Every structure is written in structure tokens, then in C-alpha cells.
């Protein structure tokens, strides 16, 4: 199945929750934190402003983003849990070594 988000919405694949702490303690499923980072799988064209012009999206497919813990709506897409959220729910784009972490 393919989803094409509308307006300023994104489809994000959440990062996997950590299963082991840095000190080696195994975290049970019931105690895992919800991920707040994920990869953008699809992005809508943008949002119309008050004048009717299209404001382009600031994030693109392949970007790794940070978002609120309870942001978006969780759905299952081809047996994979993904989030549909507005661009305004995204706090930041994760950059590594001065470059965005997008896949080209």
C-alpha cells in the first residue's frame, strides 16, 4: 500500500526503542520510552497560506526528525507501524557533521 500525505502532513517511521541501556541493563517492553525520532517516509506538498500560495515543506523524504512524544496518529502500513503527523509537530531535523541525515 502507498500513502500520499495531503497538505503539510508527513509519514514518519519511528526509530526503534532502545532495548538495552548503555550500562547493559535490558529494558522490558512495558518500560520502554516512546521514540521521539524517526525517518520521514513521505511528505505532502505543503500548506496553503492566507493568500492561497503554497508554502513548501521544510522537511523532505529521508530526513531524520525529532518530534513530540505523543505527536501524530499511529497506523499500520504493510505490517509496519508508522505515524502521520503535521509538519508543525516536528521540532528539528537531525544533522550529522553539519549535513542533514537524508538518504540520497
What does this structure look like?
The protein has strands spanning 9-14, 37-43, 47-48, 54-55, 64-67, 73-77, 80-86, 90-93, 95-96, 99-100. The chain has 104 residues and is mainly β. A hairpin with a 2-residue loop joins strand 6 (73-77) and strand 7 (80-86). It is elongated, with a radius of gyration of 15 Å. It starts with 8 loop residues before the first strand and ends with a strand.
Question: What's the structural blueprint in terms of helices and strands?
Answer:
Blueprint: E1 9-14, E2 37-43, E3 47-48, E4 54-55, E5 64-67, E6 73-77, E7 80-86, E8 90-93, E9 95-96, E10 99-100
Antiparallel strand pairs: 1-2, 1-7, 2-5, 3-4, 5-8, 6-7, 9-10
The CATH architecture of the domain at 9-16 and 31-93 comes to Roll
List segments where confidence is low: pLDDT < 50 over at least 5 consecutive residues: none
Average pLDDT for all residues: 82
What Rg is obtained from the alpha carbons, in whole angstroms? 15 Å
Indicate the CATH topology of the domain at 9-16 and 31-93.
10 Kd Chaperonin, Protein Cpn10, Chain O
Query: What is the first-to-last residue Cα distance?
Result: 23 Å
Q: Can you list the strand order of the major beta sheet? A: 6-7-1-2-5-8
Q: Quick one: CATH class of the domain at 9-16 and 31-93? A: Mainly Beta
> Tally the helices: what do you get?
0
Instruction: Give the overall silhouette.
Output: elongated
CATH homology superfamily of the domain at 9-16 and 31-93: GroES chaperonin
Q: Mind describing the biggest β-sheet?
A: 6 strands, antiparallel
Proportion of residues in β-strands: 35-45%
